[in-house]
Amino acid sequence: MTTDPGKGGLDENDDRGSVAQTGAGTVIESRDLDVFYGETQALQNIDLAIPENQVTAMIGPSGCGKSTFLRCINRMNDLIDIARVEGSLTFKGKNVYDTDVDPVALRRRIGMVFQHPNPFPKSIYDNVAYGLRIQDKTENMDEVVERSLKKAALWDEVSDRLDDSALDLSGGQQQRLCIARAIAVDPEVILMDEPASALDPIATSQIEDLIEELATEYTVVIVTHNMQQAARISDKTAVFLTGGELVEFDDTDKIFENPESQRVEDYITGKFG
Ligand SMILES: Nc1ncnc2c1ncn2[C@@H]1O[C@H](COP(=O)(O)OP(=O)(O)OP(=O)(O)O)[C@@H](O)[C@H]1O
């Protein structure tokens, strides 16, 4: 049986957390999370508590499992045949891997933005309206499209050409359009997998400003290769190292100024990675 948990359908007051975390309430929490691709283990015993309405950055060298962790949160790993997840990963206290969780409904609440902008070959308007139409939420659609484009800091650039093809936008505009598309269906969490790595410095800076703004309303989890970017925009930083180990998770300032682990210090200061 699959059910749509719907907003408020999960325990919103889950406070079991003894996993390292301070301040804002925990919205996503992993315990003893292991992920395998066939025989290869990509993540080992990950305990992590992600706070609500903040930006949490995942950093670490290539192949350390950052994207794997991100994809666990909204079960995108389900789409990889050989991926296997053990342990628990809860969203508002509910294990997203329980058999009664519908991954499609989960992904409505936990949206995702990818490394390369991937607008549909449709108009700007239809890209943003896409999820609303699928969910049959077509009431006030013009308003929702406008609001989403405004929240994604794109409205001023496209308001007079909503019927133009999304593919005619610049890379940075396309990425903001993808963010607008994700926002339109009113998610609670936005996962971003290196959302600015394919963009030029100006577009990157616009996306960074936008991410900080989005965190006033949404929980944002971002994978980035760019340590300066993590330092600039995130509240919390998780450092994964080779072998799929979460070595340190703390306030971003602490991670960059005074990390507990020598391995993290070596990584941050560029001694390896
Ligand atoms: N679809 C897959 N099939 C098999 N192995 C995979 C798959 N995806 C990832 N892996 C392996 O899992 C490990 C973690 O990969 P992942 O992409 O999560 O790391 P990452 O830290 O995000 O890397 P990068 O920074 O290079 O994107 C790597 O060893 C990778 O080769």
From TrEMBL:
Residues 28-268 form the ABC transporter domain. The keyword Magnesium does not apply. Pfam families: ABC_tran (PF00005). It comes from the Archaea. One of its GO terms (molecular function) is ATP hydrolysis activity. The keyword Amino-acid biosynthesis does not apply. Residues 1-24 are annotated as: Disordered. InterPro entries: AAA+_ATPase, ABC_transporter-like_ATP-bd, ABC_transporter-like_CS, PstB-like. Keywords: ATP-binding, Cell membrane, Membrane, Nucleotide-binding, Transport. PROSITE patterns: ABC_TRANSPORTER_1, ABC_TRANSPORTER_2. GO terms for cellular component: membrane. GO terms for biological process: phosphate ion transmembrane transport. NCBIfam families: 3a0107s01c2. This is Phosphate ABC transporter ATP-binding protein PstB.
